[in-house]
From TrEMBL:
Keyword presence, Transmembrane helix: yes
Record field: transmembrane: 35-68, 89-116, 136-169, 176-201
Name of protein: DUF7847 domain-containing protein
A Pfam family it matches: DUF7847
Keyword field: Membrane, Transmembrane, Transmembrane helix
UniProt source species: Sphingomonas paucimobilis (Pseudomonas paucimobilis)
Residue ranges of domain DUF7847 in the record: 15-207
Coiled coil spans: none
Amino acid sequence: MAIGLGIWAQLAIMALATHPATTSAEASRAGLRRLLPLLGVAVVLGLVFALVVLVPVVVLGVSGFDFARAIAAQGNPALMPPMPPGAGLFVILYGLTAFILAFWVMARLMLTYAVVLNERRGLGAIRRSITLTRGMTWRLIGVTILFVILVFVTTAAAQGVTAIAFRLILGSGHQALVIGLASLVGSIVSAGFMTLAYVFIARLYVAAAGVPVVEAAEVTEDGSPTL
């Protein structure tokens, strides 16, 4: 339920940013209408991601890696079972390759949600996003990395400062409450940055699609744009 509400809110924000003449009510309805198609696309992408993660697990299993002992070690390196050399090398190379490709995939699929929202596409939104982001891959990767760093630093700073302030106000005897309040502030800061990210993606879609905003929206009988 929470995931669905989050995606609906994201779609509504993107609808407002894509078509400035759209009202909040229209944006909410547009997000609700496109929620199920987007969830379908998200499920497919999630399955692909799961398969990518599953590959090294299968390789380790075939090589005879002791998963039961690894789980029992609870992250303690001294208790971890040895990894077969061949499988270990594969996992390292596979992980590095997947990590690098993840940035490319993230950049090329950045407009998928916007396409699902505005072009009434389902799985075809994936190919459409790749087409729209052609020639922008490295710039989008750079922007994404800088954005992640900015969000991490700002959120950590906000949590640290508020934790100190709440500890001074409430005293050292309310540690759990201090941590909870600091985490809440961090979540609010992070949510603000994510809202900016949704707006950026929506405006990037308008620029990449090369369609004027007025033409990109459907028009109702009274002449007001809708989604």
